[in-house]
């Protein structure tokens, strides 16, 4: 018998969603198979690489979540949500702006690190 480790129970679902990353310049259609306030199980094409942090937009719920990949097994990905990050897609709420700023800062730090690696190697 397996032990449930989630803080909140997940509800089965079949929701169309979109993973957005690279400052929303890249998108990936996916399916949410179960969801809770704290996370979800999404299904994506196996050949697609997805960054560890991305925005998950679920149009049917009119919500966007800042998602963090916890695990991946083939086409199935378990993600956790940052609780205060839930917002309406396309909205300009303070939480949405703060989330986008943090994502941009993370991307900026990653790019700077990569530039340093490339300049040292070359």
Automatic annotation (TrEMBL):
Domain PilZ positions: 4-83
Pfam families cross-referenced by the UniProt entry: PilZ
Protein name listed in UniProt: PilZ domain-containing protein
């Amino acid at each position: 018998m397996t032990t449930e480790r989630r803080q909140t129970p997940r509800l089965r679902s079949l929701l169309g969603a979109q993973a957005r990353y690279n400052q929303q310049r890249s998108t990936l259609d996916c399916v949410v198979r179960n969801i809770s306030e704290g996370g979800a199980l999404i299904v994506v094409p196996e050949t697609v690489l997805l960054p560890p942090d991305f925005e998950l937009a679920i149009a049917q719920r009119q919500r966007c979540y800042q998602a963090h990949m916890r695990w991946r097994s083939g086409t199935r990905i378990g993600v956790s949500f940052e609780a205060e990050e839930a917002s309406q897609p396309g909205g300009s709420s303070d939480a949405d702006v703060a989330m986008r700023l943090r994502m941009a800062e993370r991307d900026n730090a990653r790019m700077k690190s990569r530039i340093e690696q490339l300049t040292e190697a070359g």
